[in-house]
Specification:
0% helix, mainly beta, Methylamine Dehydrogenase, Chain H
Length: 236
C-alpha cells in the first residue's frame, strides 16, 4: 500500500490530543486543554469551538445524522454535544478513571455507546434505556477500542491487541506486533490498523488464512512520535 502527502495543514491554538473525521467535509480536533474545534476540510479553517471538559480530549465521534458529537476525556466523563449550537446536552460519569476511547454499536435495534477506560472496564451504554447495561472487566488499563467486522470488539492493552466476540464478550485471541504501547486501533478495509509509541502504524490481517493466523501487510514509519492517528476512507 502506498500514499501521497497532501501538503495541507491547519494551525491549532493548543496542543492536539485527538483527531476524528465526521466525513470528507469536517474534522473534529480534541485539545489537551479540553476544548474541541470543528474544522472545515473545504477551507481548512475553524467552524466552531466547544468548551466543557476539564482535561484533555481522548476520543470523539459524530452521530450518523451529524447533529451530535460525543467526546470522552481524562476528566472521567463522556459529553454529548449539540453541534449546531455548540452546547453540551448530557454528561455521563460512570467510569472512575481516564476514559480512553468510545465507539457506536448497534445490536437488535438497540444502539450502544461503548467506552474504555484506565479503570479496566469496557462499558456498554444503551441509548434506548439511557443506562449502562453491560460491561467487560479486564483488571488493567485499556488504551483504545474499536469494532471489527461488527463481530469483534478489539481492545489495546499496553502493546497487546485483544479480540473478544461482541455478542458474548468471550476472549478470541491476542495479537502482538509492537513492543511499545498501542494508542490507536482502527479498521481499513479488512485490516486492523495499529498505531504504536514505536513511531509506526501497522496494517494487520488478524485472521490471515485461519482463525489463528496473523500477518502484517504494511508498515508506515514516522520520524517523530505521533500523538494522534485517524483513518477516513483512504486517508490516514
Amino acid at each position: 500500500m502506498q500514499g501521497i502527502y497532501l501538503n495541507k495543514k491547519y494551525q491549532c491554538n493548543e496542543n492536539v490530543s485527538k483527531l476524528k473525521f465526521r466525513d470528507d467535509q469536517m474534522l473534529g480536533i480534541g485539545m489537551e486543554n479540553g476544548e474541541i474545534e470543528l474544522v472545515g476540510m473545504f477551507c481548512y479553517d475553524r467552524i466552531k469551538n466547544m468548551k466543557g471538559h476539564k482535561s484533555a480530549i481522548n476520543d470523539l465521534i459524530f452521530s450518523l445524522n451529524f447533529q451530535y458529537l460525543y467526546t470522552c476525556s481524562r476528566d472521567f466523563t463522556i459529553k454529548i454535544w449539540n453541534i449546531w449550537d455548540g452546547k453540551c446536552e448530557c454528561t455521563l460519569d460512570y467510569h472512575i478513571d481516564n476514559i480512553t476511547s468510545i465507539c457506536f454499536y448497534n445490536l437488535n435495534d438497540s444502539n450502544y455507546l461503548i467506552s474504555s477506560s484506565y479503570d479496566g472496564y469496557v462499558y456498554f451504554y444503551d441509548f434506548n434505556l439511557n443506562i449502562s447495561t453491560n460491561k467487560l472487566e479486564l483488571n488493567e488499563p485499556v488504551e483504545y477500542l474499536t469494532i471489527f467486522k461488527n463481530e469483534y470488539i478489539v481492545l489495546s492493552v499496553k502493546n497487546i491487541i485483544k479480540l473478544y466476540s461482541i455478542d458474548k464478550l468471550e476472549f478470541v485471541k491476542d495479537i502482538i506486533v509492537s513492543t511499545k504501547t498501542i494508542f490507536y486501533i482502527g479498521v481499513f478495509k479488512n485490516y486492523l490498523v495499529e498505531a504504536s509509541l514505536d513511531m509506526s502504524v501497522y496494517f494487520i490481517d488478524p485472521f490471515h488464512k485461519s482463525s489463528q493466523g496473523i500477518k502484517v501487510v504494511s508498515i508506515v514509519n514516522f520520524p517523530k512520535l505521533v500523538k494522534s492517528v485517524e483513518i477516513y476512507n483512504d486517508l490516514l
